[in-house]
């Protein structure tokens, strides 16, 4: 026992050091200061404070979950130590910053940051503030760890809602629907302050959400009432109808600011669905996916823009031609490339993406593609006399596009072709031995993916009425890739989840823009290390990735949950 | 014979070869027309060659990192471009500090060594952290998983350094002794170029000797042949992998300083394009092969600096230098299509593919 308890202290010490190091990194990268004004609870807690404390919380929790058998006094001591070490790291940075001007090198190590860390308390005493805060955070985490799991998850979700609502204060109040009288008064008087939630509002949100989650998680445990298939079907239809009404009314209920975000998210959903076929279904990592978006957008541009004066088609005349062009481009690029294996394919497609961008940029093709200036005055679609020229009207066009693409993807998934793709993803050689024509099947995946991106490109061009080579960078491909990975590779609902989380959310948070790709990178690495199947995994993929664990654990439960 | 040939060749092969032949003919025509037109003097061609060699040397050093890691782990360390960026982007602050106290030009050799050491140190640290935090758990994961992790790590590192040191371009101060040129025969070679070419060559030679002649190098090669058997032979595989990452990091750090001597500007995004090109170089030379990395890097540097003028301007393409990067990527694509094993990689592709 003695050696075990000394090992837990040692582990806690190490975890404290790790937590401290991560805190220093987070501070120097500038996250704490950047989110310092984004108050969650007005005047008390900012998003920056929360970000600073996340390492302590996570590491305390992991230390605890590997040591449940120790007496409570040890656990309190251990968590306090993790908090203390982390806090000391922060204080050390503050003290160092008093002696040397770290800003010569680290741009974010400013007095404003130090002041924030000490919560406004002047120095000799202020140095004690970070350790105390960290210890409190660690002890609270311990408390959270010790309460029953049902209550714990309710409390965690309640706190998450507080953070989300507090952070999105401005974005919620901008919604057109909430500008109507009764809502706006309640929201402004009770819930929200000028920045973040009012303390009482936070308490209210926390109490309501925690209560709801606690209540609903308890109810599930009772014996399930068996419903007749008819009732299930009826419920489903009602649910779909409600969802449809919500989705259809979104742009006018939420206003222009949201329409822009929704449209961008929609384009990414379309691209995500396409790339999901290539990467998720067929397992071909395409890092130059933006090329097809570019080809679609440029085709519409070249065909309709009077600025270039090559063709004068309308949007609807140009659309099929543009789609044909991207589809052909998919085949032409795919043919030579698809004979390669996994990671080589990734790099070659990346090369292709860059070549397309460089060609669009070059003076050589300037007369056709507009060079660095891109193409302007691209025609917007019209239906009869109605021109789809506002973001709110275009939303419906994009929605139709998504519906078509999602339907095709959904039907393809369980078709003969879809199964061939998955067979190739699992094992190329075996798939070939089973009589699947590798090149043909891969080519179909590649060109279908290209087609979807092309559609997104045409709609994107119509939305902006212009295309620029500078917007066709590698980062767009990565963006699409990240969203399907986060959502769950091969999973169609996953694409929607991923796009909403990774494109919609950053669009809302302006402070977030600066660190968007930092979080993307972190999310990719974290996801691959801890949850490779994604947020909304596809059943089969989850099975594959957790095969070993599932055989070891109770197999019946797990297959049941995987099949859901 | 012909019948047999018709059976093995599919129509995709024919399309691929047709594309290859068209491009080949275009290149030959372009070259002939450029040479006949006599647009450039011999001296200009020599200057282009020198600039190709110096860039090539840097590519070789970065390519080594890709090659060594690929040889051992069979993964493309996509974040290697950030290993390359981290070194010089950190060392620039030391260089500026030394310049501000006047040490920089008073003791240029010591200064250069100090900043190189710092750069290599930071790059090694980043490479080791990458290995420990991100890659070690994924050693036996499906192939795409480590690659995606590496892409994520690359972005994470890029934006971490952007957060740490800011969004601005930092500039290395000039070394006075590197100003001016050296006459070799009748050609005036800038001193910086001479230093970069020779330093890259020496570094490459050193790394080659480490891999080929030392005991650790031998262990590295055996781990890249077969990890399990190497472990059975008493080789600490983990230690060798760590050493490999450190070696790759060191060469990237040195390459970063050489790069900064030429271009002087460093910023958080500087790694992406050189990284991609160095990967191209590694593939061109035959991935997993030290000599291949050197050959591929040098060749790529030469093609890139001579290519636009030699091939493209003859075809009447205006501003051909804009397409310099395009040429490098096109080479990557075509090498992977027509000869995925690279120049030196024949034996390797047979035994390990």
Notes on the protein architecture:
The complex is a heterodimer of chains A (564) and B (353). Chain A is 74% helix and 2% strand. Chain A has 3 domains: 1-146, no CATH class; 148-218, no CATH class; 256-473, no CATH class. In chain A, the strands form 2 sheets. A two-stranded antiparallel ribbon of chain A has the order 1-2. Chain A is mainly alpha-helical. In chain B, α3 packs across α12 and α4 (80-100) runs antiparallel to α6. Chain B has helices at 2-8, 11-37, 42-73, 80-100, 103-106, 108-135, 144-165, 191-213, 215-225, 227-232, 237-263, 272-285, 290-312, 324-338, 346-352, and strands at 170-171, 181-184, 187-190, 265-266. Chain B is built from 15 helices and 4 strands. Chain B has a two-stranded antiparallel ribbon. Chain B has a two-stranded antiparallel sheet with strand order 2-3. Chain B has one domain: ABC transporter involved in vitamin B12 uptake, BtuC (Orthogonal Bundle). Chain B has 353 residues and is mainly alpha-helical. Chain B is globular, with a radius of gyration of 22 Å. Chains A and B meet through α1, α15, α16, α22 and α25 of A and α2, α7, α12 and α14 of B.
